[in-house]
Write a structure and sequence with these properties.
It contains nine helices and two strands, in the order ααααααβααβα. The chain is mainly alpha-helical.
């Protein structure tokens, strides 16, 4: 089997796995992206932005910053549609329309559902992004020591205003279960990094 055949077989396995994910319309995704390679890139980009954008949607929702909230749900509507996550795209479009009409009661009623569905793709897409097309196991618990080391690295990035590196660390940390006693600090650090509001 030559390299082209190997690549084709890998693409076929990727698409077959993607079809099985809840809420995916693979035909729509391929139609929008045009080819498997572009779809793979789009899924990777969607996955990489998921932790940051879900946090910011929640943050702006709680802050009642409807301008920035609307920008993010608009972007989510488009990115979810691109990769065939039709229900997520429809839910984001609904909330965008509610904001345009200043119907914030409906936004308050439905944002929790949107975030729950959005965040579920962190686990569902992980096998595709990692290249391991298999059933996802439960998240490993991040030890206190490992959390402390990661926080120290984050603080160095923040002090140097290297937010790209900080986001990479947070993306890695999002793959772990954070113990209850560390969650408040974790959320605070995410706010600093994602909103660029260094103390």
């Amino acid at each position: 089997m030559d390299k082209k055949d190997v690549s084709s077989a890998q693409d076929n396995a990727f698409i077959a796995t993607y079809r099985k994910i809840k809420g995916v319309n693979c035909e729509s995704a391929l139609e929008h992206c045009g080819e498997e390679a572009i779809l793979k890139t789009a899924i990777g980009d969607f996955y990489d932005a998921l932790g940051r954008n879900s946090f910011l949607i929640s943050y702006y929702f709680k802050s009642e910053d409807w301008k920035n909230y609307t920008v993010l749900v608009h972007a989510l509507k488009s990115s979810a549609r691109l990769i065939g996550l039709e229900q997520l795209s429809k839910d984001a479009a609904y909330l965008e329309a509610c904001c345009d009409k200043k119907n914030y009661e409906a936004v308050k009623e439905k944002t929790g559902e949107l975030l729950s569905l959005y965040k579920s793709y962190s686990e569902l897409l992980a096998p595709l992004v990692s290249g391991k097309q298999e059933i996802v196991v439960e998240k490993e618990v991040m030890s206190r020591y490992r959390f402390s080391e990661a926080v120290s690295a984050l603080k160095e990035c923040i002090s140097g205003k290297d937010f790209i590196a900080a986001e990479s660390i947070l993306t890695a940390m999002n793959n772990f279960e954070i113990i209850a006693e560390n969650r408040e600090e974790f959320e605070h650090i995410k706010e600093i990094v994602y909103t660029r509001k260094a103390d």
